TrEMBL record:
The keyword Lipoprotein does not apply. This is beta-galactosidase. GO terms for molecular function: beta-galactosidase activity; metal ion binding. GO terms for cellular component: beta-galactosidase complex. Keywords: Glycosidase, Hydrolase, Metal-binding, Zinc.
Length: 839
């Protein structure tokens, strides 16, 4: 195996011999690796390179600025089964700006190409920045040399940089980043309780069958009670006590809660909202993650936590922060004001390119420089949609930069898998975030009124990165709640369906928030395993029953692997941002996706949720709703997929906006190149919500209506089984077909009882669902499949409060080995059943 570093001569302090030595030591004993070499080559030499399967190519320097060049290298590596990583640039550290350095256009191109092609990013920029910010000047000067504009790493930094790159390569390509055991436990907050209470909770958790706890994401003040004075003995003592009881630990990095001493010393670090109001200490996430003082202290603390954690084998994962962007999305502080024009320049290059893309001739918005571009602060009316969308993307990108800095520190300090607890609620670029981590983690708090939200999350997060291990880091035993919002508890038995489906889907952890209820603060009404008084809470019996159910399910889990559905729907973080900009006053992206998923699952199709950069060829049918911008490369991928026999369903509102949230008028049809390919033109959009003007659907003798924003057009070919008409869009339809692709310009406001959905699923989706050859479900009955060479196992749960029926197509056996004949099988409310079919 060879490592090829493709560069244009940009300085990279790397000792190739030491890199090879460290790599050999790290992979010693691996049967597939018998020799490792390392070469540095120029971009002009790459076309003549003879790549072999398993080789690693790293592209670094100015040659990474050309996106087409990177795509060409990616194609070449793919043909050779070589592995490709794109590296961001080591910065020149400046002393004239508080932020030290800014990402460049090269770094932005690297991330864009890596995101689209599902490549790893070797984030040398974040690594260097996290090192610089956490070290004192006396340490920095030993490894830096002066250059024009500032300082950069000198040759003296070579051992440090080489060691980091070696550790990164081993983590990304040679170590199995997984959790060995299935974890069942809860979050604990030992900083809130006495030693005696903590001992009681640790012992009781162990005694009821839990094997894991999650701690630490908020206790910064316990580890650094005064600036620069650390008490890591507190953390060591906790980890010792959990280890003594056989409890594994998911350890949090407590950066969401800077102590009071921090906000007193650095008041300029606090978040400023669009109205100019400064967030105050007293909650969490009140500090801007872009602030250099905050980053410095966060990076220093993270390094110390990583060093401690590396000594404890019972620490099975480290969680960065807690629910990034949970409470505050955009910030308008002075730091963000400095970073914003730098980000714009990296993205657009020239101010005239920005003016053209945003159409700033409207309302005299034209800008003469990037420094002139305003942030979307309070204004009499709405801001330009392009500006709003760009600033939200800037916010997500800079958050990723902060998180990547935390990650590189931990890569350097430990080999423990890294994760974060994300959610569908937050403005993130999840692929970029988790590319720098190891295992996807998420939080979800489903309710029994919309139970399909839970399997939707399971189907989403297991497909984000190529790692089947997924961690559910927070969910409730009964109900969520805080002092401003009381919520309904789960009905008895509902929790068991979550646990049963969760582990079947591939979860490696199911952790309750929280173990002992909060006695203080705003989340006192939230359910827990035990109340604040130490007695069983409402969901306690279901927690125990779920553990017993898991013990019966476990043998089947251990002898099978996750088997994905043959049907998938695209979930887009970019689309989520788009609907925050253009909601029309009616749209919430999470609700839209959940309702769309329910329209499918209630008709027996339980799809995977995949990002735009996924390999569509792994599925027989792909649905792409709500993706406002379909790039040229994404459209090319769609065309190739259909040409290879795939079924593709676009819409609603897919392809109707550009990457800058403007009308897509390319090819003169309002849907750009997608519309041209689908054979549609004369495109209009309007709100279908009034019986006098709604878009009417006719399917045989049945009638339906599209709701929300509908896209109507003239189509070369419509759907044979459905017509859509509208008085205000006369002569147009909302459905079109082109070969194996379908475009739907709208969907009904309600999925239940919808003739539109019945027909679409029956004709263009269900025939591509391979699972229907074994079992057919619907309503509130959800399922996940696991396979081995001999069996196909379906883990099925009725998540509804009423009895339901499923159709067993082939002979099967249940969890106890009893035979199940083909035919109708009735499931009681919240019943869980495992059906094993012979292949």
């Amino acid at each position: 195996m060879n490592i090829f570093i493709v560069t244009d001569g940009t300085a990279l302090p790397l000792d190739r011999q030491q890199l090879v030595c460290r790599m050999r030591n790290a992979v010693a004993g691996a049967d597939s690796v018998f020799a490792i070499g390392c070469e540095v080559i120029g971009l002009d030499e790459f076309p003549t390179l003879s790549l072999a399967e398993g080789d690693i190519v790293i592209v670094y320097g100015a040659c990474a600025q050309d996106a087409d060049c990177l795509y060409g290298i990616a194609d070449c590596c793919e043909r050779s089964d070589a592995r490709l990583a794109l590296a961001t640039k080591l910065p020149v550290f400046r002393t004239d700006v508080p932020d030290v350095a800014y990402p460049t256009a090269i770094d932005m191109v690297v991330r864009d190409v890596a995101r689209e092609r599902r490549l790893h990013v070797l984030d040398l920029f974040a690594y260097a920045m996290s090192w610089y910010m956490r070290e004192y000047e006396s340490e920095r000067t030993q490894l830096l040399e002066p250059v024009e504009g500032g300082r950069r790493f000198s040759a003296a930094a070579s051992p440090m940089v080489t060691s980091f790159i070696a550790r990164w390569l081993v983590r990304r390509y040679f170590s199995r980043r997984h959790i060995a055991d299935r974890l069942y436990g809860a979050s604990m907050y030992p900083e809130m309780w006495s030693e005696e209470t903590n001992d009681e909770d640790m012992n009781h958790a162990r005694d009821i069958g839990m094997n894991a706890v999650r701690i630490g994401e908020f206790f910064w003040s316990r580890l650094e009670p005064e600036e620069g004075h650390y008490d890591m003995a507190y953390l060591e003592g906790l980890l010792d006590r959990y280890r003594a009881r056989g409890l594994k630990v998911v350890l949090g990095i407590p950066t969401p809660t800077p102590p009071r001493w921090f906000t007193l010393a650095y008041p300029q670090s606090c978040i400023v909202n669009a109205d100019g109001l400064v967030m105050q200490h007293g909650s969490r996430q009140h500090v801007c993650t872009n602030n250099p003082d905050y980053r410095r202290k966060a990076y220093q603390l993270t390094r110390r936590i990583g060093e401690v954690a590396s000594r404890y084998p019972n620490v099975v994962a480290i969680q960065l922060d807690n629910e990034f962007k949970c409470h505050v999305d955009m910030c308008f502080c002075e730091t963000c004001r400095r970073l914003w024009p730098q980000w714009l320049q990296s993205k657009y290059g020239d101010i005239e390119a920005l003016n053209a893309a945003w159409g700033t001739s409207i309302w005299s918005e034209r800008y003469d420089s990037f420094a002139d571009v305003v942030m979307p602060e309070a204004t009499p009316f709405a801001h330009n949609s392009s500006l709003d969308y760009a600033f939200r993307t800037f916010t997500a990108d800079t958050l990723t930069q902060f998180a990547s800095g935390l990650a590189q520190i931990l890569v350097e300090a430990t080999s423990i898998p890294l994760t974060h607890n994300t959610s569908t609620n937050f403005n993130l670029r999840n692929y970029d975030l988790f590319d720098q981590l190891d295992i996807v983690g998420f939080d979800t708090y489903p309710n029994s009124l919309t139970p399909w939200m839970f399997p939707m999350n399971l189907g989403l997060w297991r497909n984000l990165i190529p790692n089947d291990d997924v961690l559910l880091l927070e969910t409730c035993a009964s109900h969520v709640g805080y002092t401003g919002n009381y919520m309904l508890p789960h009905p008895t038995g509902f929790l068991e369906t979550e646990v049963f489906l969760g582990y079947a889907s591939g979860l490696k952890s199911f952790l309750y928030w929280l173990y002992r209820g909060q006695k203080y603060g705003v989340e006192q009404p939230h359910s827990a395993v035990m109340t604040a008084a130490g007695t069983p809470d409402i969901g306690y019996d279901d927690v125990l029953e779920s553990q017993r159910l898991l013990s019966r399910q476990l043998p089947f889990l251990e002898e099978t692997e996750v088997a994905r559905s043959s049907v998938a729907m695209v979930y887009s973080d970019e689309a989520r941002r788009a609907y925050n900009v253009e909601s029309g006053g009616i749209y919430n992206f999470k609700t839209m996706v959940t309702d769309y998923y329910h329209a499918l699952s209630s008709r027996g199709v339980d799809p995977e949720l995949i990002p735009e950069n996924a390999d569509f060829t792994q599925y027989r049918c792909v649905l792409m709703p709500f993706v406002r911008n379909v790039s040229v490369r994404l459209l090319d991928k769609c065309r190739q997929y259909v040409a290879q026999g795939g079924k593709l369903i676009f819409g609603p509102m897919t392809g109707d906006r550009t990457a800058d949230m403007t009308w897509n008028t390319a090819d003169g049809n309002g849907l750009g190149e997608l519309g041209a390919w689908m054979g549609v033109d004369d495109v209009v959009q309007y709100l279908s919500a009034d019986p006098r003007t709604e878009a009417v659907v006719t399917v045989g003798d049945a009638h339906d209506a599209l709701g929300g924003l509908v896209t109507m057009f003239r189509a070369e070919r419509s759907l044979e089984y459905m017509t859509v008409t509208s008085d205000v869009a006369a002569g147009r339809t909302a459905v079109a077909r082109h070969d194996g692709a379908v475009y739907i310009g709208g969907i009904p406001a309600q999925a239940d009882g919808s003739a539109f959905w019945d027909a679409l699923v029956a004709h263009d989706i269900a025939p591509f669902d391979d699972d229907r050859a074994f079992v057919q479900t619907g309503g509130a009955v959800l399922k996940f499949r696991r396979d081995n060479e001999r069996h196909a196992d379906f883990h099925i749960a009725n998540m509804g409060g009423e009895a339901a029926c499923i159709e067993v197509v082939k002979p099967a056996t249940d969890i106890d080995g009893a035979g199940i004949a083909p035919g109708t099988l009735e499931l009681a409310p919240f019943a869980c059943v495992l059906l094993r079919f012979a292949k």
